[in-house]
Automatic annotation (TrEMBL):
UniProt keyword terms in alphabetical order: Cell membrane, Membrane, Transmembrane, Transmembrane helix
Superkingdom assignment: Bacteria
Any GO CC annotation of this UniProt entry: plasma membrane
Transmembrane segments: 57-76, 116-136, 157-185, 205-226, 238-258, 270-290
Record's subcellular location: Cell membrane
Source species: Rubrobacter marinus
Pfam family for this entry, one: Virul_fac_BrkB
Keyword check for Disulfide bond: no
Membrane topology annotation: Multi-pass membrane protein
UniProt-recorded name of the protein: YihY family inner membrane protein
Amino acid sequence: MKIPGIHYLRKAEQTGNEVPVPMTRRRLGTVELLKRTFKEVGEDHLAAFAGNLTYKALFALFPFAVFLLSLLGIFGSSELLPRLLEQAEAVLPAAAADFLSNQLLGIAESNAETRFTVGAIISISLALWGVSGAFRSVMEALNVVYEVDEDRPAWKVYLISILLALGVAALLISSLVLVVVGPQIGGAIAEAVGLGSVFQTLWNIVRFPVLLLVVLFAFALIYYFAPNVEQRFRWVSPGSIVAVVLWLLFSLAFSLYVNNSDLGATYGSLASVAILMLYIYYSSLIVLVGGEMNQVIEEHIPEGKNEGEKTTNEGATA
């Protein structure tokens, strides 16, 4: 495994602890950027980190579902679940979507009367804690990408992971809710001002770009807060754009593959679970690849940082 900062330790040994700092930087072309990114993906063992993240995410998935369903029950919106699942089925492979739907609808039925009780609060807290573990795995992986140590206080690491879990979940769920109930709310407003048919046309055009922007913002939050480096917040970064595009293409290709193959013959009764694990694994890898691309770009722009540096001023003081 790549040790954070090992590049600078070796240079220090070779130069008597006087590490040369590059004074000029050269922006990479598209082909060179892609080559460098995938080279770094291999060197940083991101495939292994994606496996670790898949393990954490799979265990966090159903606690997260309990968390969301508890919130829906508390606010009296449980009837939204079937419609939210319909939107998720547009992205997930059919077998994985059916598996999730059956499990979540079963959980929803058993928790239909959820209220603000001590038990509900404890359940929500435990679920949120489980989900935050997946985000701590993302933080660990991106620290390796940037070759930095995790020296933030433990309380801060846990707090960031919990806030990331809350923030990303809120963004993704709100985007799905927007798709589900947005037409009704917007349609009522449009009818009131005499724009009924016009609104319907506009909504069909803009709803998916709005969803993409929300997903891009979720990626931006992860890439900004997860690694232990100082950086300028970017609403949209090259890494997040590439990650979202790759994720959409992968989701489409994976759905076509799964829906037109007989994985049941290979995995038997575990086919749905295996498909879900594969989907989470490659989705996790895509998230980490986007972070790697951002790091490579950071290393080659005038105002950027070298690998192993947490701030842009570290190299100047070497």
